[in-house]
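Q: My labmate handed me this sequence with no annotations at all. I'd like to see what the chain might look like in three dimensions before we decide whether it's worth expressing. Could you predict it?
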Amino acid sequence: MHKLIITVSTISLLAAASTTILYLHTRDASKQVVLSRALDRANAFALAARTTNVDDGVLARMAKLMQDETAVYACVYSLGKTRLCEEPPPASVAKSLDFAIDRVAKKKRYFSQQIDSGRTVLWFPVSVGTGALGLKEPIGGFGPGPHGDKTRVLTLVVDDGSSRWLMSHSTLHAALMALLLLTLVLLTVRQLKTMSKQQEMERAMGEQRRFAEVGRLSAVLAHEIRNPLGAIKGFAQYAAERHPGDETLREDMDTVVTESSRLERLVQSLLSYARPKQQLHLVSTPVGDLLHRVARLAGAAAQEKEVILETSASSPGDISAELDAEQMLQALLNITINAVDASGEGQTVSLGFQRDEEHLIIEVRDQGEGIDPAMLERIFEPYVTEKKASGTGLGLAVALRTTKAHGGRIEVDSRPGHGSVFRIILPLS
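A: Here is what I predict for the chain of 429 residues:
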């Protein structure tokens, strides 16, 4: 699922980048189209002025006719900076007028200059011919006919945005691409949610199937094993009592009783794990009292291993939470017994709790050898245990199921040689 998200994100970024590049390229291309058109018109103007007998008035009228949506301003200037048309230039053109005309007179070629955002001015030299009549040039003045100053400067202010239809098409394309990308992302998110729900349903169905299988097995164990197992245990105890002086027989019978008790615990664990989920009976439960009950029930196991079992609750009942007390008692007892079994002589197993604004946190902390990192991710799976001799592998699985039924979760911190901390985190609401 994560790979799919990364793939879709990469494709989206590439598509957005290509759309941006296309937009910028189209914008630059549209400017070049407008400037090329203006340059073609300036060349046509210069050709007409050179091959026909025109005076300055005709040139001014020809320039005025060039004004349209592309050339927003057109005028002819003499090399003496005299304007031959009536309409004044834009302020940005007037600022660079002297420099531009001097440059045209010196270089004898056109040049363009960006004057405003979206506007470019084109300065173009125009050579005025003497016409078909062969009139001599007067020495000055700007009346009809050719003059001594035969070069004029055509000034065109070109609106780069006059080809906005190209930009609008590019923008529309970018918008469509963005819409398609958004649709793709939404569909992908929806598909991921659907897949997640389907996987959750499959996990739930798999868990139900496992419960059903374990339930059937538990029923067989309960009816076919528990009764004869009880008889074996009873006869072993009876035989040991009838021959108190036979030490070898007593040891053998004690082994039979011990192993019979282990099998009884296994059957009971299977029955507890396979029992269908029951509706929680939530009542306001003092957490301190609950931990003290757990400590009393686990006290015999702790005393047998000479492990110190303590609770950090300063006063019972100082915090209450809505819990199914019996189910949560069993879950905590399973975790506590595991902590006692993982601890050595003289080590401490502590039970404590705290709360924040939204959660109740119950901790079971031991000083044992810790959990093998290879096992840490599997300890809540059924039948997974490090207690080869006596463990059933169902205690933590039952604890996790009970915690989830309360809307909570279990977190584990464990490092080899540094003990383990199990935290049951429950919502207070």
